[in-house]
Amino acid sequence: MKILYSAIDQTVPGPHGGSVHVRSVAEGLSALGHEVQVLASPGDMGGFPAGSVAWWAMPPPFGDRRLRLLKAGAVLRRARAFGPDVVIERYYNFGGEGLLAARKVGAVAVLEVNAPVVDYPGSAKQWLDRLMIVQPLRRWREWQCRAADLIITPSTRILPGDVSASRVLQTEWGVDTRQFQPGAAGPVPFTRNPGDTIVVFVGAFRTWHGAIHLVEAMRALQAQGRRDIKAVFIGTGPELPVAQRAAEGLDTVTFTGAVPHESVPAALAAADIGAAPFDVAAHAPLQREFYWSPLKVFEYMASGLPVVAPRIERLTQIIRDGCEGILYDSRDPSALASAIARLADEAGLRQRLGAAARARAVDHFSWQSHCQALDRAIRAARDAHSHRH
Fold this sequence. Notes:
The structure is a single chain. The chain has 2 domains: 195 residues, Glycogen Phosphorylase B (Rossmann fold); 168 residues, 3-Layer(aba) Sandwich (Rossmann fold). It has 14 helices and 13 strands. The strands form 2 sheets. Strands 3-2-1-4-5-6-7 form a 7-stranded parallel beta sheet, with helices on both faces. Helix 2 packs parallel to helix 3, helix 6 packs across helix 12 and helix 10 packs across helix 13.
């Protein structure tokens, strides 16, 4: 099939999860024999990736994703030139350009939903909608869901209640288990000494990623004399300065800054524990549902690292407590430090959980398996679409 993938507000290549996701899905579908073209924002890291996927530079106007819909004409022109069987669009309230193009060229419309379509309590969009009385934002995003022949999402709870289950593929995102594996070689952006236990955090440093909680846990461990446990923070983002200030005086904490995604596998392979201290209280939409499908967790698991994370319902479906990692009670301020200390002290447990995490990632959370499920769902949606038309 010919597949046009509209992800114009995603920068490829880039250090964030959205960039990794778009590239992995595009390349995964191409590997299954599809002809794939992607509309995206070009990254500043050497241009679009080489390979079988055709990349087209189409950033949103002025770099503002809220203006994405103004690109509807350009997306339609690309669709008419390419003649896709399928158009995939990454959902955004102010988007819809891919869905409109799919309708006009008679293609199957696939909507990839990574964020809540429904409002959460206190939503600014809900407040704005009510001011405008006719609620155009709600109506538009609900139209997007109705216009899609297939919706891909990690959680059905972020979709409107009237969306038929027959049009939804609920699935987690994934990881390249060939790239991320124990023993991955390459430069490592930190130093470890004999006897060290390295806890690694990879992220975009947003408030809900909870980096500050790992810093606090490291301060507690250092106060206990645990200088054998070191934390390495990889990445950058708005909360990085906050975490760095909180870590002042800690000689067991290292910040590497941004690292190219292709260098992350070696960094994870050189660590011992993967930390994902998410803080749902710091991001209002997550309080309705932890809709995130956390790439860092899948990458930790594929690298053979036991994962330490809060006991959140969605995360329990990915990491089984005592099987692939340790899930702690985020209401207990000492729980994260205790979980890390336990894994540092029990090498056998650490190795057992890490091996199980690797096996689970390979069996359930690879990009290959994700794209195979997506391929099956798209083919079924295409059959249903052809019967309706």
